[in-house]
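Backbones bend. We report:
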Amino acid sequence: MMKILIAAILLTAVAIWKPRWFSRLLRGVEKITGWLGRHPRWTVLLVGVLTFGLHGGLTLVVGRSAPHIHDEFANLLAADTFAKGRLANPAHPLAEFFEEIHVLCEPPDSPTPVRMSKYPPAQGLMLALGQVAVGQPIVGMWFSVALACAALCWAFFAWMPPRWAVLGGVLVALHPVLLKWGQVYWGGAEAMLGGALVAGAFGRFIKGPRPSDGFWFAVGCVWMALSRPFEGLLVALMAGAGLAVWIWKQRATLEIKVLRRALLPAAIVGGVYLGWQGYYNARLTGDYFKFPYMVYEERYAVAPFLVWMKPRPEPTYHHALIREHFVGYAREEYDAQQSLKGFARQSVVKIKRLARDYLGRFYILAIPLLALPWVWRRGGWARFAVGSVLGFGVLTLQETWMWDRYVAPIGGFLFVTILLGLRQFSVWRPGGRPWGRAMVVLVLLGFLGQTALWMKSRRWENHRQDWDYQRQQMIAQLTREGGQHLILVRYGPRQSVHDDWVHNGADIDGAPVVWARDMGAEKNRRLLEYFAGRKVWLLESELPVAQVRDQMKTPPRHELKPYQP
């Protein structure tokens, strides 16, 4: 860390002393991006292709990540389900042994007798694409991030000069949060893809509406609805309100025929989505208007999604770990925000977390935001981009929990805002010296440094061989041995609720390795009778939380042993 600090101080000192050196360096970059900017379509395609290749190479360098949080396993279940040509899996006769956090897992006599992820389908669909195409779900995430980066670059062309749009495309392709989303299974890029399409279509619509603008605006809204519905709705409403204001201002000169042609594709796309979403809901919940997420929350959750909503009564849980997740961890997060002081304190925590994710480990991308007062002063629709980010931030602070992927729909307008600030710095010449351009170069160098540090950190995480890695090794070893296996998992009282071994694919009965929860010798007898003929193992786990494990020289090791009833 000291080396990084010294390097930053030296570079800043040189930039102050010889800003023209840095200005010439930026001029060279601008020549390249300016040339590429003359071919927008090819540049957008190039950004997507290079991003896809980058993620393939990155996996070789830092290693392949194993799924480890509940969201990832839920998305992988959805992917496996879609890959088998189904929207949901039938309920298992012994469903209580296979309950998972974030998965609808009801018994056959339930009003919703299905087993499926509670989440919207976009992440599962992209993972299924990789699974079907090459047998590797993670490839679907590479493709998802590639589409998101290409869409962001496309959006930038609508908001700024071509050379800055190209530079922005390179920056998002190398951004740590997007690099991370291409290496994990919890999604994020899907919602950012939708938000980027909305931002790009908005920027083009206000220059003169065309049918393609309405089409891509609607596609972006739909893709947000299929990935992050609540946050996507906020972005869609803000963008829709902005377009309504523009239409009102242009009412004297805007031809109704032109407007109708632009809005008709959007109406068609929206209609198709509503029909499909209703059908999907009905297949999973039995109700055209009820999302799987809603059914799951009613069944398991105590703490509500928004901090000002009332908590639900505690339901009946079959397993202590699942109860602790909802009544302990989730409820504690909610309770901590019920006072004004607590809400303010937790809001600061959320803002710091998101700032670290989107602005970088050392908040290097916060520097362009310092120029936003001048961007605002210039007027125009740049104010809308800035205002949308601020408004979205205020509204989403009301969510009980907050992680990087939750706010992905605003990514299009956020990165537009950052680039507008960076561009504003590039024309800042106090005393006739190009200190603003030198600042831009410092930001770019700092950004690349942050990306390199993230890659180093990711490599360390992937080679640490924590429980998630051990779980995959157990599955691989048992599969190589042949035969069919059943692993009963027994947790100790201090087991981390975020680290759960019990996850299965779409076809439990046909899997070579099945994971189930230990429910005691008497109840386990039913499970053993059902899976007669399988070799039965016991796994005992009492993992501390990740923050504690990270301080250990090596993570706790786990071994399978024959199950003794």
About this structure: The chain has two domains: 2-26+47-62+125-286+336-462, 467-562. The chain has a mean pLDDT of 93. The radius of gyration is 25 Å. The first strand starts at residue 89 and ends at 90.
